[in-house]
Amino acid sequence: MDPAVVGRRVRALREERGISLSTLARLAGVGKATLSGLEHGTRNPTLETLWAVTAQLGVPLTAVLAEPAAGPTVHGTAVTATLLEVFTDTDATYELYRMRVAPGPGQLSPAHPPGVTEHVTVFAGVLRAGPADAPLTAPAGGHLRWVSDVPHSYAAVGDEEVAASLLLRYPRR
Amino acid sequence: MDPAVVGRRVRALREERGISLSTLARLAGVGKATLSGLEHGTRNPTLETLWAVTAQLGVPLTAVLAEPAAGPTVHGTAVTATLLEVFTDTDATYELYRMRVAPGPGQLSPAHPPGVTEHVTVFAGVLRAGPADAPLTAPAGGHLRWVSDVPHSYAAVGDEEVAASLLLRYPRR
DNA sequence: CGCTGCCGTTCCGTAAACGGAACAGTCGGG
DNA sequence: CCCGACTGTTCCGTTTACGGAACGGCAGCG
Questions:
Q1: Residue B26 — pLDDT band, cuts 50, 70, 90?
Q2: Lowest-pLDDT range, A30-34, A163-167, B48-52?
């Protein structure tokens, strides 16, 4: 648990929104010294302080806390996926994961039940994934989709780790 | 944000484990007075204190923080987006949302800072979204992507609510 | 050059969160 | 009973996070 990490995230979120330290401090009702020290990690903020700041940024407290994984994490040889959310609608159940694929030989996953589809959005790196006999390739910003009732593979192209979101759709039986 | 709620959760977790306040305080390396005050909600704990206690209980910080639903981003009339995760890599910060768009007239969002891109993966329904003057359309399973430094719109096509994931990418400046 | 306005950091007195010790209450054993 | 070991709370001196003010730096403007 590193206060410096929390500080960096707060600063990143603030700068994304294009607001200055001074104004954020004023909006959140905390001192500029407090916010400055918080962003630098030189202070050990009170829950109240952190709450005031994150609320003003419009993010939950969890967004700045160094929590590695909220949900269960699945580790394979190349792929690490953490479950972010499960939700259902009238005709399917969805599982949304954040996925990371390490550079190297890649990984093979067994077939899912019939009708299951996977949707992958690539954030960083280049991903080659899909049915084992006909994988697809997507660069950062790209999107892949396949029916995963056959064995399928994931691999990073090049030396960069791939970051992506993975959605599994299980049709209601 | 209620410190009393945090206190009750800590006490509940401690009692589930059948350990006394005294021993938890000793294991966590905090004073008994500190833990007592924390559980009663009469103190405003430091991040360090709360971390020491929750770590000893074997739960993530998020387990005791009063966040029931991650902050609904009140995009407004038609769109509801809840922040699932924030993460950063070497050249950008990402915010991942689950988004729902209600059927009806849709909604306009103001421009983001330059360089920000949005990636949407549609799970259910049909979504029309993108730059306000040139929106794109995607059915379930589809994917949209645009540079969002201009005003942009979201609308559900047809009577079905749209479920989607939304990724905002903020380049490091 | 001033002057103004905003930026983020540092200084500093005050308020409060901190840990240790003292406290009353409760249980079980000799 | 009385004692020891334990519970959780309260007291208190020390530490430290707090906000306001003062500071230097950097634009834009007359």
A1: very high
A2: A163-167
- Chain segment B144-165, per-residue pLDDT in tens: 888 888 889 999 999 988 888 8
| Residue B130 contacts residue B144 (beta carbons within 8 Å) | yes
A39 min Cα distance to partner chain B (Å): 14
Cα separation, A17 vs B113, in Å, equals: 8
Which regions of chain B does DSSP assign to beta strands (E)? Answer: 79-89, 92-101, 107-109, 117-124, 126-131, 136-138, 143-147, 152-157, 162-171
Query: Across the interface, which of A16, A46, A58 has its CB nearest the CB of B71?
Result: A58
Residues 6+ apart with CB under 8 A from B154: B75, B78, B79, B99, B101, B106, B107, B109, B127, B128, B129
- Residue pair B83/A59 in contact (Cβ under 8 Å)? The answer is yes
What is residue B57's DSSP assignment?
A: H
pLDDT at B96: 79
Q: Which residues touch strand D (CB under 7 A)?
A: A 29-34, 37-38, 43-46, 48-49; B 20-23, 32-33, 36-37, 39-40, 46, 48
User: Cα–Cα distance between A157 and B123 in angstroms, integer?
Assistant: 27
